[in-house]
């Protein structure tokens, strides 16, 4: 069955009928520009020629794609366009083919830049195309990340007490100023310099490596005394309440 | 005169042919092959449940073991198909319960599945093994309880992104103690809590369990228990990945993960607490699939993870990964085949994430096996697209969503025709394409000229005239699914290419300019098509000929028009009129 050509006998009058349509479901496609400034009208004609040669033209055919030269065709173009695109360029198509003149190119280009104000993404149904499963977490995450931001700003200074065996006066250290155990240990060694060891500053902190006579411990949320260094840094920071530098296990039974 | 092999030999040969397309080709060779083939076909795939009648199917293929059905059109995923449109599976279940008592597998996508249907399934097939429901709705945990209780040899129960009415978490307890055959359990989409002890016992008595995807409510602290019971898991989906930070929980989780030597795929990760992420580092180097698309981790953490996944083939992630993370991905994951980047905050104009077109360009440069892309971003340029096309001519699936409709090339302000044109021209094996941004009829010309292998095309807010649609319908030889929204396409191209529609599975057009009269004409002239007009705004009985319809869904069918439509859907041109539906 020649489903294409024979079919269209009937629609000549019908489908093109009034610009009735509506504004409702059809968005204003406004100022969409086909060609950049460099393109000239030759391109359109090439395009049309290509289409018309690949597609058999029937006299009854009412495609309105610019295949028909003159006659009723152009009316169809205008009508069809008017339904869909109020600002279409086919206002100039009273003659043969859909022609974009240079002036209208310039005009369109300007408005293309100014007024690409398509429907706001947030107000269009089903846009952006994200499945429901991915939509719900999004809102939850937004709330969460706002909360996180707020709370991390509030916690920008996290200081804990540090006490050392044999020293009456404790110190305080800001944990958020560090991002690893190494730097923390060095800071502590500096704070209690002279009391910890005759420290070489090269190599790993002796506090952490277990070669010092002292050991670095902390008290966690549950009140337990734990060895520093076992868990990832972030986890440590979230659970530490205070630090203690103790003499090595031979002399203390804390650990 | 043809000499032929004895039937048994041919049957044996046919048993190696599994693809539907090949099987269909085999059945066209001659009558005897048709006969032989139809008796030994074991799997049926019905891409549109309204395209064929189950009775016809059962008559032709009497010994089927596995059925896959799809219902609603793809755009239903984005709320474009009104509720009540259709896609009911019950009538199918009734027929196949009668016709295929030995059926073993049912896979459904985008269908309305009721508890009744589930119950019928559970009671009708004595050897039922596999139930996979993707994007389905209409059932509750009661239906699941029936499946659990009655399917003695159940191996696979997967609920992928379904909407389930959660009446009780105790449906899991309906699996009898004698059920030890479970290989795959996916309950990720369930919203309420399942009974953990029932879950634990089920996992403990399922030695063949390879896939376990939990829902959000399974707490992080309990994960290690499950992992220790099932160290043979290949695919695992966590619940919420957050808990109060405790080193004992961390330690046992780490140990549990490292005990899973076969783990290849991870998913879940709702609400991530970064401190717990290192717990699964030990499995990273073995992972081939990683789904972090719900994970609220930031770029540094995500980068750290992907940098360790040297065998990764498939990554789903939020745009939190940012360009830097994608650069790391490009450096570390040379086996990457599929990348999906989802937007963390799609409804604001300016997100705080530094994800641009550059990330995608990097991955296209660094990952030679990249075939499939789904990318949400806020800006794109023709030059980036052209670079991607040049880097990766082996792309088979390219879906780009620029969040703002009709956004032009952000550098030149031109339409993105050239960029997408380069994609279709260079990627000669491209089967699936989704476009966005500012696009004129030009891009459709490129698609019609070069997209010869294109199977599915999704278009939104694009084009200028019917010429665009015409290019696609007349040029894309392999096109089977076309879905269009908010484009200025009217009657002409559609009517001029009416016979093309019979070679396709379906065409969806919403918020375009196709008139009611054209739909009527199409429906009348093309008996092999169902032309469904979907319009909730207007009373369809009083719609004027020239009025554009809200939504249009055209699909080829040998089943004739359907009778389960709501009143806002009409099948045009059948029964000499507008096709009045019977309310069901």
TrEMBL record, chain A:
Residues 16-27 have a biased composition (Gly residues). Residues 16-35 are annotated as: Disordered. Its main location: nucleus. Keywords: Auxin signaling pathway, Nucleus, Repressor, Transcription, Transcription regulation. The keyword Nucleus applies. PROSITE patterns: PB1. SUPFAM superfamilies: CAD & PB1 domains (SSF54277). GO terms for molecular function: identical protein binding; transcription cis-regulatory region binding. Residues 157-250 form the PB1 domain. GO terms for cellular component: nucleus. GO terms for biological process: auxin-activated signaling pathway; regulation of DNA-templated transcription. Pfam families: AUX_IAA (PF02309). Homodimers and heterodimers. Belongs to the Aux/IAA family. Aux/IAA proteins are short-lived transcriptional factors that function as repressors of early auxin response genes at low auxin concentrations. This is Auxin-responsive protein. It comes from Cynara cardunculus var. scolymus (Globe artichoke). The lineage of its organism: Eukaryota, Viridiplantae, Streptophyta, Embryophyta, Tracheophyta.
